[in-house]
Amino acid sequence: MSANLRVLPSPGDLTRLLACVVARELKDGEIVAFGLHAELMLAAALLAQKLHAPGLAIRHGLRVESGAEIGPAAWTEARESRAHELVEYLEPHDAILDVAGTASPMRFCDVFFIGGLQIDREGSTNLIGIKGKDGRMKVRGPGSIGTTSIATLARHVMLFSTDHTTRRFVETVDYVSVPGWKRRAAVGLTGGPSLCVTPLAVFDFEDGAMRLRSVHAHATVEEVCRRTGFTLALADEVPVTPPPSAAERAALSVVDPFGRLDRLAIAVDGGPA
Amino acid sequence: MSGPRPERVIDLLEAAALVRDGSTVGLSGFSYQNPPMALVREILRRRVTKLTIVSGPTSGIETDLLIGAGAVRRVITAGVAFERVAGIAPAFRRAAERGEIDVWECDESIWHLALKAAAWDMPYLLWRGGVGSSLPELNRDLREVEEKGKRYLRIPPVRPDVVFVHAAEADVYGNVRMPREAYLGRCFSERALALACRGPVVASVERIVSNDEVRRDPARTILRGALVVEAPWGAHPGGTSGRYLPDLEHYRDYAAAGEARLKGAPAAYQRYLERHVYGLEKHGDYLRTIGAAHLETLRLNAAMS
Questions:
Q1: Is B96 within 8 Å of A140 when comparing Cβ atoms?
Q2: Percent with pLDDT over 70 in chain A
Q3: Residues of A in contact with B57 (CB under 8 A)
Q4: C-alpha closest to that of B215 among B183, B168, B173
Q5: Which residues on chain B are in Cβ contact (under 8 Å) with A172?
Q6: CB spacing of B135 vs A144 below 8 angstroms
Q7: Which chain A positions have a beta carbon within 8 Å of B239's beta carbon?
Q8: How far apart, in whole angstroms, are the C-alpha atoms of residue B23 and residue B2?
Q9: A63 in contact with B at a CB cutoff of 8 Å?
Q10: Residue of A89, A94, A99, A177 to mutate, interface with B, max B Cβ within 10 Å
């Protein structure tokens, strides 16, 4: 199909697809954590709870919630929020330090989601800044916020980007907020990120390098490769990302009664190339 | 013979006078929530300079405004951003790119550990997070070391000279408390900063409540021994957990002024400083500038307060 004839999904259809992709990765009994304004991850976690992981614990900010729907997520917008009625447990912020005790039932999390100004081939991320041609920091980023330590110590890290461009997906990040597979191995840390989800495709990692696992129905392998700033490992046959099943669709409508997933900022076509 | 229990109430001017040129100032808050803005504006009116700001763990407008006004030399924080309004806070970005401030590069966990090292009087703490990242290259205070075959970062203590927080309520004896329905967690960085502080801890609060009321629900008390300043709407344009929402319209205006200045057009940012800080005498003038009717639109439903 030629690029100019293809039909792009609505932002809501795309975010629902991505919520399904992430939900399928979450396992019963795990603790999943994410920061503020993470409706997509919250939707994925609630979806997994409904479909296959009733014992999944959701740590939303510093609250452990018994989830129902994503309506109350946006505290900063909702005047009549009843979010507090879902909360089972509240912690002070330094609970983020309790991520390394992987056996405790009170551990901070097993699964953590991170993004970056840049993401590279081995899954390292950068929120610190972008270098100019002279090798000095040209664009100051926000800072590593909560990503570095939690993503280094959590059992399971997934990467996420709301666009897909060669500016985002680079050969090597300019600064490392969170080390990926090879940088981890070099300092004696095992593992690395397991998955990367973008508006165009889903990636996993093979031998410490990002591999195209599936492309969404509205994208092509060629397009994904062109919009990625490094050579991707490709399977012989790259499948289309499985669309939401009937059960997933039904559960999503319960999880997102107010259509919040329709209003998220996401670059359906991957963003400016 | 013992006198009555001493009260710990001061006013905004007395609180701001605790900051001197070169002070290390701890500021609590998280993202849009609970920044001690009335105190920050009062500090700016004293025209102090060369501050080290310990804010966060991830900071917002309290830090960005101090940087934008030229009061800051160094910032110890895991990030400065306004969530969806601005992915990178504009004055922070401008000052960092121009080399006007030093950024003590860290993440939220390392930020907490530096305060714990201070609170526990430890020369350093060892931590696995940050190993393999750029943090030790960019922040010389973080040294990578090996211990029993594993690599760690050495996190040194960070000790504020004075700490400012904003909260919903306190009594006159300095018991500071969160509302029943907290926005995000039990508290943000109030305890971490207060425990690391080598000087006074000041809490501006929406209202002063009775000690009887505090004793009815002690689990809500997050700090004790603070100096207390009554400053209604004292977090504006930030929100106060359980009391009112952040004023995102104000944040957008501020961010636009900051971003224009980043691109070489400083007039709007200067106007912001004049209109909201330097052209005013006190917090009450600020509230009149914003307008009571506008503030009321931010108030949370009664069920939550």
A1: yes
A2: 88
A3: 93, 145-146
A4: B173
A5: none
A6: yes
A7: 76
A8: 35
A9: yes
A10: A94
Give the whole-angstrom CA distance, residue A127 versus residue A143: 5
Architecture of domain B12-104+159-300: 3-Layer(aba) Sandwich (3.40)
Assigned token pair, A86: 């879902």
The yes-or-no verdict on residue B123 having pLDDT over 90 is yes
Q: What is the pLDDT of residue B80?
A: 96
Cβ B76 vs Cβ B49: under 8 Å: no
Buried b (16+ CB within 10 A) or exposed e, A113-151: bbbbbbbbbbbbbbbbbbeeeeeebeebbbbbbbbbbbb
CB A100 to CB B128 under 8 A? Answer: yes
Q: Extract long-range pairs of A2-6: CB within 8 Å, 24+ residues apart.
A: A3/A220, A3/A223, A6/A218
Measured between beta carbons, the chain B residues lying within 8 angstroms of A79 are: 245, 300-301
The CATH T-level fold of domain A11-262 is Glutaconate Coenzyme A-transferase (3.40.1080)
- For the stretch B1-39, pLDDT in tens is 789 999 999 999 999 999 999 999 999 988 888 999 999
In chain A, residues 17-56 whose CB comes closer than 8 Å to chain B: 36-37
Q: Is the dihedral of CA B37, B39, B44, B50 positive or negative?
A: negative
* Cα gap A258→A205, rounded to integer Å: 35
Whether A100 has its CB under 8 Å from any CB of chain B: the answer is: yes
Contact between A127 and A177 under an 8 Å Cβ cutoff? The reply is yes
User: Inter-chain contact A128–B128, Cβ cutoff 8 Å?
Assistant: no
Q: Tokens 């439903």: give the residue.
A: B301
DSSP letter at B86 equals: B
Is residue A96 less than 8 Å (CB to CB) from chain B?
A: yes
Residue of chain A with shortest Cα separation from B183 = A75
Q: Which of A54, A61, A88 is nearest to A75 (CA)?
A: A61
Q: Does A190 touch chain B (CB under 8 A)?
A: no
Domain regions of chain A by residue span: 11-262
Least trusted range by pLDDT, from B188-192, B223-227, B289-293:
B188-192
Average of pLDDT values for A157-176?
97
* Neighbouring residues of B214: CB distance < 8 A, sequence distance ≥ 6: B171, B175, B177, B220, B221
- Domain ranges in chain B? 12-104+159-300
Query: By CB neighbour count within 10 A (0-12 exposed, 13-18 middle, 19+ buried), where does B256 fall?
Result: middle
